[in-house]
Specification:
The complex is a heterodimer of chains A (157) and B (85). With 157 residues, chain A is of the alpha+beta class. Chain A is 28% helix and 39% strand. Classes of the chains: A alpha+beta (157), B alpha+beta (85).
Amino acid sequence: MQLATSGPSVDTTVGSLRVTFAPLSLEDVYALADDSANGAVVVMSGMVRNNSEGKSVVALEYQAYEPMALEVFKQIAAQIRATWPDATRVVIHHRTGKLVVGDISVLVAVGCPHRAEAFAACQYAIDTLKHNAPIWKKEHWEDGSTSWVSIGSCEEG
Amino acid sequence: MPNPITITVKLFAIYQEAYGTPEVQWQFPAGATVGAARDRALAEHPKLEPWRDRTRLGLNLQFVADDTPLHDGDEVVLIPPVSGG
């Protein structure tokens, strides 16, 4: 198992939760979700899109209150275990720092005996993360201006 | 009179840009609540007032209501609308 190169993390036999500055690995996340009791692994990959609301985006800058984000990830994993007790693994890795178009910002993987609960649990995880995790992203627009997503324009300097 | 309490306030996104620093240490009188930290930030940076009702509060890594009491050494975070993922 590869160790996180930065940021807080929790790695156990039933999952892996990380907030990290280092690039994310789809291969690692899949491997961490793999289990012989799985009939399905659902992986959600979120990446930087080249536009937002019709304007060209060149980069996203992620900021996280890392220890609290990890607490939110732990609560998500605990809720998945309560709702879908057969889930074998829960993996949530989120990046921080400046990412360019195409970079992966978040990976969520859930392993379960059957696909229905794996899809449901993975969707629950990413939806709850987006709603509750103390993580913010700033859009860097093609014209050089920036703005915080869901907040708005930045003061210069 | 009871001693004042000192807390750390973590700042992110618009709050961090308003203060130009990722955290501040503030003193409050004994008996102050988490909402006092938000109120002080908005009083010092009135342009952030529109975010009052959309700023959630965290205390020692958990979401809390604004009437939660503060204690010496607590770590508070002001959480403007999040956008992870």
